[in-house]
Backbone:
């Protein structure tokens, strides 16, 4: 908002999100109670996800099983592993919430003084935690062997390790959701905000008023036309051409990065972080030591990852698969002010773009569609939230899809969160498979 050409600061919302107006939160209160387990309250993550109650129900069931039900790891250890994983992305929201849960589960308070106070067995997770958070394609069977090597007191069983890997991947992707949606701390967390307040120009220069964005309606119409063109595109390409288009998209994605500077971490985060300089680096298959692109057909969730997970952590495999199926099918057949819209091509483009960032290629997908359907501001937002979410800014959130509902942007974050988690799990599960065989 401007008065006389001068930016007028506005207060941040008092609700769950720094991005989503409080009045939009009120409409979701009724559906939240149906999705929640009886012993849970509606925290700010739940309230944002509550815009999509079908997904929220799956998420709540999965997180409850991961943190509360029987499993190889003690409950307090599970919360501490999430603390370590959340700290990789400077997500003080999750660090603080799980620090409290860690103590409630009977955890040793001294561990919260820093990673060095935890048992060696937990300290040994740091390498794979770093890789899962920032460069999962580097994970090999050697990393697995080092953790499960027999004859050491700090060895991990495969059952324990698979649960730890799911916990870390869950926390990394959830940190992306927290940052991507601008989740604010609960009232009891008000001294430790996970999101920097907007600057005056960021907080008040963006609205969904189409009169202030004369090109926004045309932007929606153009996207609809491109979606129709993609669906009608009947030309077939050789496998070589498809690979070339993937490589072109991967190379162009190198340009869609927010500026990344060396992190200066507050003590509440740094005490749980080893090697803070190790951050996301663009996937590149070039060079002798570089990992090759992962072909989805060679190691997929459906054909490989699920069966291994089902063998080692059966109930979680089913829950993760259900959550994945729900997010991939989630649609209301609407887009901005339009109804009866088939959004499948757009949702698939977002998913495949995220996997492209993580070095995963689908042989049967034409990556030309990504460039047609995802404009640059959306690509910058998606890459930032998926790869280094702590760099997300309000400007990134408000600059893409300016005429869309906030629930549609939350929908993007759900796709992003699940695609990121699946990518990390695929690399870890592939390494475990290779270790076993």
Residues:
């Amino acid at each position: 908002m401007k008065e006389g050409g001068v930016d007028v600061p506005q207060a941040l919302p008092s609700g769950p999100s720094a991005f989503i107006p409080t009045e939009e939160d009120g409409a979701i209160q009724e559906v939240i109670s149906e999705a929640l387990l009886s012993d849970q309250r509606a925290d700010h993550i739940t309230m944002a996800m509550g815009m999509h109650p079908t997904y929220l129900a799956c998420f709540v069931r999965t997180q409850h099983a991961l943190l509360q039900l029987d499993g190889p790891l003690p409950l307090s250890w599970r919360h501490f592993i999430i603390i370590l994983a959340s700290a990789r992305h400077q997500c003080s929201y999750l660090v603080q919430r799980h620090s409290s849960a860690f103590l409630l589960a009977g955890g040793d308070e001294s561990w919260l003084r820093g990673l060095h106070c935890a048992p060696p067995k937990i300290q040994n997770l740091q390498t794979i935690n770093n890789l899962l958070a920032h460069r999962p394609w580097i994970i090999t069977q050697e990393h697995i062997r080092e953790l499960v090597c027999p004859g050491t007191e700090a060895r991990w069983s495969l059952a324990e390790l698979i649960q730890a890997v799911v916990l870390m991947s869950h926390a990394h992707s959830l940190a992306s959701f927290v940052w991507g949606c601008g989740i604010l701390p609960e009232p009891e967390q008000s001294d430790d905000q996970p999101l920097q307040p907007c600057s005056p120009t960021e907080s008040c220069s963006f609205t969904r008023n189409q009169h202030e964005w004369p090109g926004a309606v045309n932007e929606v119409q153009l996207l609809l036309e491109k979606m129709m063109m993609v669906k009608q595109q009947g030309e077939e390409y050789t496998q070589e051409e498809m690979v070339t288009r993937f490589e072109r998209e991967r190379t162009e994605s190198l340009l869609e990065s927010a500026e990344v500077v060396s992190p200066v971490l507050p003590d509440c985060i740094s005490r749980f972080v080893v090697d803070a300089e190790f951050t996301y680096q663009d996937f590149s298959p070039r060079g002798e030591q570089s990992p090759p692109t992962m072909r989805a057909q060679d190691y997929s969730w459906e054909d490989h990852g699920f069966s291994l997970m089902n063998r080692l952590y059966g109930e979680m495999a089913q829950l993760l698969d259900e959550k994945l199926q729900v997010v991939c099918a989630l649609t209301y057949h609407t887009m901005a002010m339009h109804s009866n819209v088939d959004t499948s091509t757009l949702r698939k483009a977002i998913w495949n773009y995220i996997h492209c960032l993580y070095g995963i290629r689908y042989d049967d997908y034409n990556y030309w569609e990504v460039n047609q359907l995802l404009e640059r501001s959306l690509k910058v937002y998606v890459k930032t939230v998926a790869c280094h979410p702590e760099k997300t800014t309000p400007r990134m959130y408000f600059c893409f899809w300016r005429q869309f509902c906030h629930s549609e942007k939350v929908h993007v974050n759900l796709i992003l969160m699940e695609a990121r988690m699946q990518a990390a799990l695929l690399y870890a599960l592939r390494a475990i498979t290779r270790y076993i065989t």
